[in-house]
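FAQ
Q: What does a multi-component entry look like?
A: The components come first, one per line:
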Amino acid sequence: MNVSDLVNDLGLVIYSGKKGLERAIKGGYASDLLSDVMGNAREGQVWITLQTHKNVAAIASLKDLAAVILVKGNQPDEDTASHSDEEEVPILGTELNAFEITGKVYEKLKAHEIVQS
Amino acid sequence: MRLYRADLHVHTVLSPCGSLEMSPKQIVASARKKGLDILGITDHNSTRQCEVMKRVGVREGIHILCGVEVNTREEVHCLAFFETTERLEAFEQIMENHLPDIKNDPEKFGYQAVVDEDELILDQPGKLLISAIDLSIEEVEKKVHEMGGIFIPAHIDRMRNGIIAQLGFIPGTLQCDALEISPFTNHETMVEEYRYLENYMFIQGSDAHYPDDIGRVHTRFYIENTGFTEIKMALAGLNGRKTELV
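Then the predicted structure of the entire assembly, as C-alpha cells:
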C-alpha cells in the first residue's frame, strides 16, 4: 500500500510533496509534539498531526516518513509546503479531527495487514 | 560597566496561574529582598499589568522591563519585551485580536486580575489568557522585531510549552535575541545535549508565579544603565555589554 492508495481511499487533499506519492506505507503515528515524533516515529509511517509549522516537513524528511496528514482542515504554512516539495514527502489534509482520521487510517492499514491488532 | 541582576520572567495576578499574592507591591518587595535590579513582567498573552508595575518599580528602585509571555499557535511560550508604552499597547492589540474566544473559568484556571498600586481590582479580562493565540511563532517573532522589541523563546528545556518539545528543534531561521532556560537546568547541560545551541545567547529566568520564586535564578547584565538599548546590546554582546548566567 502506498500513499496515493490512502489518498484515494480516504479522499485526502494533497497539499505538497506530490513526487512522494508512491512511497510505501509501513505504519502510522499520531502526535502533535514534534520532539515526540523525532524520538518515536519510525520510517515509512504516516504521521497524523494538527501542527503546520515548517519543522513538520523537516522532521518527516529526517525520519523518512511516508507522508503527513494535517487534520481539521489545517493547511501547511508556505515554507512547510515548499520544504515538503523539496524533500518529496507528501503533506495531505482532511477535514476530520485526529481521532476520526486515525481510526480510518488504522482500519485501512489493518485491512492490508500493515498493522496487527 | 555596572552589574545589574535581572529576572526577566515574572508573572503577576493577571496570569490565571499566578498567585493572588503577586501584586505589584509584593512583587517589587520580593525583588528588593532578593537583591534584584531588573524585573521582566511577562504575563500570559497580556501586557496590561505592566504600566502599574513600572510605576511601583520606579518608586522602589526596581527597573521594570515591560513584556509578555506569548503562547504561539504551536503552543510555544516566548518572552517579548518592548521599549515604549505605545509599542506595548500595539502588541497588546495584536494579541487580543488573535486570542481565541474561550472564557476563563476562575474556579478551574484561577483569577485574572488587573490591579492598581493598592491592589484594588481594575478589571478581570473575560477571555482565558493562557490559550494559544492564532499566530505562528515566526509571525510573532517578526512582529516583535518590527516593533523594535526583544524576542526570547521561554524555558526551552521544559517539556510543557518549550520550543524544543513542541517543535523538535529550534528553526535556524528564527531570529532569537536569546534563549531562556528554566531554574531546573543550566547552560552546560543544554549545550551538551543540543550542540547546535552553543551559538545562542542564554538567559535564565524564574518563571515566578509566587513571590518566593522571584529571583530563584537570575541573569547578570553588565551595562551602563537599564535603558532598553543597553539591555539589547548586552543580549547581542555588543560594545562591551554582556550577560552572564549565575
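Q: Is there any commentary attached?
A: Sometimes. For this entry: Chain A has a mean pLDDT of 96.
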